[in-house]
Write a structure and sequence with these properties.
- This protein folds into two domains: 156 residues, Rossmann fold (3-Layer(aba) Sandwich); 145 residues, Glycogen Phosphorylase B (Rossmann fold, 3-Layer(aba) Sandwich).
- It is 39% helix and 17% strand.
- It is built from 17 helices and 13 strands.
- The strands form two sheets. Strands 3-2-1-4-5-6-7 form a seven-stranded parallel β-sheet, sandwiched between helices. Strands 10-9-8-11-12-13 form a six-stranded parallel β-sheet, with helices on both faces.
- The radius of gyration is 20 Å and the shape is globular.
Length: 363
């Protein structure tokens, strides 16, 4: 079987790239296509695939400002040719699902989410308070046009597989398509307990972007009087640093080994935003540590309230502060938390996806 893998862009190792890494391990002879590839930004397994890139790769300062070329992405993704393949698997949170392929070629889309900023989170990314009134007014018709294109090209995937039941619901709402569910991989072999004592500190591991609601975590920990460590970077970092008190540490990017150690020593890991799935909370649980998460979206499928953490119904900082204080002082069964996380391991993901991809009647 001649297989092509398609990913929106390769600029770092986030949840989608970790899923792609497993598929690259399972199908080392596949060819990989992406809009933009920043060399050295992804794992050696993915780098060895020598990704084919689009014309966006050659645009000025693309490594840093690739998101600014978003209006060009629909045209760029449609330029790739898949005539020589038998099957295409796209991993899509933006436009990879909209590749153009011959009718004889089966296209399975592993959908991370329909693009948030074009559908239901415009204000979080492009609202007047984010980029100014004039720029927001310019972006609104651009994103509306992108949403129409996204909907109109949803039929280019022959079959959808979602990362969660929550995302399957979004696929049904925006694309009017059914989707099977295969949970993404968590490296439970790497992330594991080591017997370290819990310290009275909360942890966030996240990209610093608007919908993650890191400001809520900062405010909640201040009210609960629990020190907070934040791992990750992004466009919101400077604004968050201005509002944070002295008990908040911003560590930026850290190695996986550093993050594992932080999970093991933190009393609790926080997920204040509504996530499509949420890899970091499961990495924390694989280390035997509880999670405080907003009780919406993918967290409802990954956190067992009262057993592996606390789900918060109210999105306010006050409600999160109460939950953080409760979780920090409560005794959790680290073994039970670990066993729950093991259900989401890499081998399970690889087996389930390989079965779908190689199934003769996949499409």
């Amino acid at each position: 079987m001649r297989l092509a893998l398609v990913h929106d862009w390769l600029t770092g190792m986030r949840g989608g790239e970790k899923a792609l890494e497993v598929l690259c391990e399972r199908f080392p002879d596949a060819e990989l296509f992406t809009l933009v590839h920043v060399r050295g930004s992804v794992s050696p397994t993915i780098e060895r695939m020598r990704p084919h890139t689009s014309f966006v790769q050659r645009l000025p300062r693309v490594k840093r400002y690739y998101r600014h070329y978003l209006p060009l992405f629909p045209t760029a993704i449609e330029q790739f040719s898949f005539d020589r393949f038998d099957r295409v698997v796209s991993l899509s949170h933006c436009c990879a699902k909209s590749i153009v392929h011959p009718a004889r070629v089966c296209h399975l889309c592993y959908c991370l989410t329909p693009m948030r900023y074009a559908w239901d989170q415009f204000d979080a990314y492009f609202g007047p308070e984010r980029i100014g009134r004039a720029a927001s007014a310019v972006m609104r018709p651009v994103m509306a046009r992108l949403a129409r294109w996204d909907r109109d090209t949803s039929g280019r995937a022959d079959r959808y597989v979602a990362i969660s039941h929550y995302v399957a619901g979004r696929i049904a709402r925006y694309y009017n398509r059914e989707a099977a569910v295969v949970y993404p991989p968590v490296d439970t072999d790497f992330f594991h307990p080591d017997g370290a004592a819990r310290e009275r500190v909360a942890l966030v591991v996240s990209a610093l972007v608007p919908y993650k609601r890191i400001d809520v975590a900062i405010a909640a920990c201040a009210r609960a009087r629990v020190p907070l460590t934040i791992v990750g970077d992004g466009p919101e970092r400077a604004a968050l640093e201005r509002t944070a008190g002295p008990d908040v540490r911003f560590l930026g990017h850290r190695t996986n080994e550093d993050i594992r150690e932080l999970y093991r020593r933190a009393a609790v890991t926080l997920l204040p935003g509504e996530e499509d799935f949420g890899i970091a909370p499961l990495e924390a649980q694989a280390c035997g540590r509880p999670v405080v998460a907003l009780g919406r979206g993918g967290a409802l499928e990954t956190v067992k309230h009262g057993e592996t953490g606390v789900l918060v119904d109210d999105p306010s900082a006050d409600a999160f502060a109460d939950a953080v204080a409760d979780a920090v002082d409560r005794s959790f069964d680290a073994g039970a938390i670990r066993r729950h996380a093991e259900r989401f391991g890499r081998a399970r993901f690889g087996d389930e996806m390989a079965a779908l991809i190689t199934e003769p009647t996949a499409c």
